Amino acid sequence: MRRKNNVQAYAFLTPFLILVTVLYILPAILTIVMAFTDLDKTFIWKMAGLKNFQRIFRDPNTLTILKNTVVYVGVCISATLLIDLMFATLTTHFIKTERVSSFFKGVLMIPMITPAVVYSVLWIWLLASTGDGVLNQIFMGITGSSSPVNWIAKYPMQVVIMAKLMTSIAYGTTIFSSAIKSIPENQFKAAWVDGAKEWEIVKSIILPNLRFHIVFIALWETLGLLTDYTTILLITDGGPGVASEVWALSAYHKAFINGKYGYGAAISLMLILVVLVLMVAISIINARMERSERNGET
């Protein structure tokens, strides 16, 4: 009977395992192999050893791209967590009417569910460098200036960070809102009886109960930001120059624009290694937090 159940289980899992192997495992292996080759548009496979990795460190733009990536990920993670916590607290703890709360959460969902191309075009239209741009019309109307500002060229990193933040708010807000709703009501009642103010309730009850959710959102957003480049590609394409180029976008440019597939694979492989290290580190931190909580309870 056990053998029959195992056969049925493997039969149901086989299509999924085939898809995972074809779409994830094989491409990952292929990327690792490509990173050590001189593969380009000629599609001639020739082993190059560590040549591609040496080129990465010799590239004068590598330091700028690395700095852009750290700034992009760091600012987006910090701002996303703060904004998510603020909106989740406002729409769940302070706004008691479910209909009103759901309305605001629905508004926050709009940037996330909008197709990336449409969303990016809206930003380009909003920040157009001509006098017809929405922001330039407001700017020239307030200051009286007759010269429009090329906002995207002047503030490329600020623009892509702001655009990315708008699409990241809804997910974290939803997770935090659900977590706040799961906090036992007697904790809030006890705080109100003791005369605690709202800020004290947020600091002493809500935030401590959300610490594991904060770690999860930080991990999720970090992995997403390190590997995502669509918004930057569509709005600035990494420009001007490499002013808004990040690591993942650099791999795309080297492989699919310049035709240096081996070089692009090497850049991607380094990014994968960084992601793996972060996942292990955050998992260790999370395990220690859970262990310390269990020890505290006992």
Write down the Rg: 24 Å
Shape: globular
The largest β sheet comes out as:
none
Sheet-strand content, in percent, reads under 5%
Can you give a write-up of this model?
The chain is an all-alpha fold. The protein is built from 14 helices and no strands. Helix 3 packs parallel to helix 8 (156-181), helix 4 (98-113) packs antiparallel against helix 8 (156-181) and helix 13 packs antiparallel against helix 14. The two termini are 42 Å apart.
Helix-strand layout with pairing:
Blueprint: H1 2-34, H2 51-58, H3 62-94, H4 98-113, H5 116-126, H6 134-143, H7 151-154, H8 156-181, H9 185-193, H10 198-209, H11 211-227, H12 230-235, H13 247-257, H14 261-297
Short description:
By secondary structure, this protein is mostly helical.
Task: Describe this protein with a few key phrases.
298 residues, globular, mainly alpha
